[in-house]
Amino acid sequence: MDHAWISLVAAIGAFFVSLLSIYLGYRLLLAGATGEFKFKASMNGGSVGSESVAPGLAFALFGAFIAWWALYRLLPH
Fold first, then answer.
1. What confidence tier does 1 reach under pLDDT thresholds 50, 70, 90?
2. d(Cα 53, Cα 31) in Å, to the nearest integer?
3. In whole angstroms, what is the distance from residue 13 CA to residue 11 CA?
4. Residue 21 phi, psi dihedral angles, 5° rounding
5. CB of 29 within 8 A of CB of 56?
6. Could you give the percent of the chain with pLDDT greater than 70?
7. Which of 72, 68, 74, 77 is closest to 10 using CA atoms?
8. How far apart are CA 73 and CA 28, in angstroms?
C-alpha cells in the first residue's frame, strides 16, 4: 500500500469517527444533557476557549474539528 491509499483510508476512518461524534452530540442535545465543560486551545499565538458548554455541543464541535482536520490532511496544499 502506498502513501496515497493509507491517507485515503485514514481520512475515511476519521470522517466516520467525526460523523459518529456529531450524531452522538446531537443526541445529547436532544436529551437535554447538562453539565459544565470548559476548554481552551491556543495555536500560533491565537487562542480560543469556552466555558459552560453543553456536552452535546462539545461532542459536535469535536466531530466537526476531526472532519476539518481529515479534509485538511487529505487535500494537497
1. low
2. 15
3. 5
4. -65, -45
5. yes
6. 87
7. 74
8. 29
**CA distance linking residue 68 with residue 74, whole number of Å:** 10
The pTM (predicted TM-score) of the whole model is: 0.63
- Within 18-65, strands assigned E span 39-43, 46-50
**Length of the chain, please?**
77
CA dihedral angle for residue 59, residue 64, residue 65, residue 70, rounded to 10 degrees: 130
Cα distance between residue 61 and residue 26, in whole Å: 10
Which helix H or strand E contains 48, and what residues bound it? strand 46-50
d(Cα 52, Cα 75) in Å, to the nearest integer? 34
What cell was used for 50? 469556552
- Give Cα separations from 38 to 27, 48, 76 (angstroms): 20, 11, 34
User: Are 50 and 38 spatial neighbours (Cβ–Cβ below 8 Å)?
Assistant: yes
